[in-house]
Design a protein that fits this description.
CATH architecture of the largest domain: 2-Layer Sandwich
Shape: rod-shaped
Strand content: 15-25%
Distance between the termini: 80 Å
Number of strands: 9
Largest sheet: 7 strands, mixed
Oligomer: single chain
Bound molecules: 3,4-dihydroxyphenylalanine
CATH class of the largest domain: Alpha Beta
CATH superfamily of the largest domain: Bira Bifunctional Protein, Domain 2
Order of helices and strands: HHHHHEEHHEHEEHEEEHEHH
């Protein structure tokens, strides 16, 4: 029987099968344990001889089981090592990371900047009435400013695609009582010929402050600080050049002094025209305000050194990978 058991141990093919065998032989009710229990009924001499004999067999079987066990364990480990092996020489899978578009980045940065000094954000529709886009902004029909805007008309209605973000001034001021400070970033549309600096859709950002006692020095201080922050140049020179917009009086265009000593126009601004305030139900003898408007693409191109506006909308991931940003910060 001993030879038979040793053969069975040798033949067992798995750790659970081997353990079953161990219990069968050496367990509490195992065959060998049972044999040992019979010793009590024998004479002392017989017991000594038989006891020694059984213990030799027991040791041999235990040893055999231990050996077989470590063999099976090694085998299982080998199997795992070979099946879970990875080839670290294989090239890594490409992982495409999205980037933040420069237009989004500029809008995020500017809204964050003005948000810290109390500006809210307002929005308006792209399809806009002529009343909001022109009349209420003091640009009457047949006014030359209307013609200069190359407006897209919506067929079958009097609506247009807004040519500027300024109509958001009207919508916001009609719905909210001053004092108020807000920004309105968004898309605008003009039927310009497409070239390196013109596209039929682009982005503007409008800013408005209406409070009692606001004057031109508030406008200047705000915009000088903003431009120096935006272009990261604390000593940047700015020039407020007298200009004309129907909805502001006085009006100015702001130029910044650029690297080559040239002046570059970056935005339009002015004190909000009393007629515009009245058109929004605000008493101009009580509240005054200033407004400014800037082209987002233009600011982005100046700051980040692009010379063509068209790739902004082409969705070419190589361009975006180069000019895009990793995270909003
Ligand atoms: N709406 C003007 C444009 O599209 C830009 C502008 C100029 C906006 C002066 C303003 C402003 O709010 O005060 O050319």
């Amino acid at each position: 029987m001993q030879q038979e058991w040793l053969a069975k141990i040798q033949a067992s093919e798995s750790l659970p099968a081997l353990d079953e065998l161990r219990v069968h032989l050496l367990g509490k009710n195992g065959l060998i344990t049972q044999q040992l229990k019979t010793l009590g009924s024998l004479s002392p001499d017989e017991r000594k001889a038989k006891g020694a004999e059984i213990n030799v067999i027991k040791d041999q079987i235990s040893q055999e089981i231990e050996q077989k066990k470590s063999f099976l364990e090694d085998q299982a480990l080998e199997l795992r090592l070979s099946s879970e092996k990875i080839d670290i020489t294989l090239p890594a899978r490409p992982e495409n990371e999205g980037k933040i578009h420069p237009l989004s980045k500029v809008i995020q940065d500017i809204t964050k900047y003005f948000g810290r000094i109390g500006f809210q954000i307002f929005d308006g529709p792209h399809v806009e009435s002529q009343e909001h886009n022109f009349d209420a902004l003091n640009i009457p029909a047949h006014h030359p400013a209307r013609q200069s805007h190359d407006t897209f008309y919506v067929s079958g209605s009097d609506n247009i695609l807004r040519t500027q973000t300024s109509p958001v001034q009207i919508r916001t001021l009609r719905g909210h009582k001053p004092p108020i400070r807000f920004l309105a970033p968004g898309r605008v549309f003009r039927s310009d010929a497409l070239d390196a600096t013109h596209t039929p859709m682009f982005h503007q950002l409008e800013g408005v402050v209406i409070e009692e006692g606001i004057n031109f020095s508030h406008l200047k201080g705000t915009l000088i600080d903003f431009c120096r922050w935006f272009f990261d140049d604390a000593s940047m020179n700015l020039r407020f050049r007298p200009s004309f917009f129907p909805f502001t009086e006085p009006s100015a265009e702001v130029d910044i002094s650029w690297k080559n000593g040239k002046w570059l126009e970056v935005l339009g601004c002015g004190m909000i025209h009393p007629t515009v305030l009245q058109n929004c139900g605000i008493d101009p003898s009580q509240f005054q305000g200033f407004a400014f408007g800037m082209g987002i693409e233009r600011l982005a191109m100046l700051k980040y050194g692009m010379n063509d506006i068209r790739p902004f909308y082409e969705g070419d991931t190589r361009w975006l990978d180069h000019y895009g940003f990793r995270s909003a910060s």
